[in-house]
Amino acid sequence: MGKANMVPAASVSSDTPVFDAVVVGAGPAGSATALALARAGRSVVLVERGPFPGSKNVYGGVVYGRVLDDVVPEWWNEVPVERWVVRRSTMMMTGTQSVSVDYRSAAWGEAPYNGMTTVRSRFDNWLATKAVEAGAQLVTSTVATGLLRNAQGRIIGVRTDRDQGELRAKVVVACDGVNSFLAKEAGLMAPAQASHHTLGVKEVLDLPGHVIDERFGLRGDEGIDIEMLGCTRGIPGGGFLYTNSDTVSLGVVLSLTHLAEAKVRPEELIADLKNHPSIAPYLRGATLREYAAHLIPEGGYDTMPTMITDGMLVAGDAAAMTLAAGLWLEGVNFAIGSGLAAGRAVDRAIAAGDCSAKGLASYRSDLEGQFVLADHKRLRKAPHLVLSERIQQRYPGLICDLVDGMFTVTNPVPKQGGLRVTRSAAAKHGVKLRQLAADTVRALRVFG
Amino acid sequence: MSAAGGVLGSGHEVPGGIWRGISFEDRMSTVEFRVGERAHITVDSDVCRSCTTKACVTACPANLFAPTSEGGILFNYEECFECGTCYMVCNHEGAITWTYPDGGQGVVFHQG
Ligand SMILES: Cc1cc2nc3c(=O)[nH]c(=O)nc-3n(C[C@H](O)[C@H](O)[C@H](O)COP(=O)(O)OP(=O)(O)OC[C@H]3O[C@@H](n4cnc5c(N)ncnc54)[C@H](O)[C@@H]3O)c2cc1C
Ligand code: SF4
Ligand code: SF4
Question: CA-CA to A6 of 20 to 30 Å: which in A181, A255, A287, B47?
Answer without folding.
Answer: A181
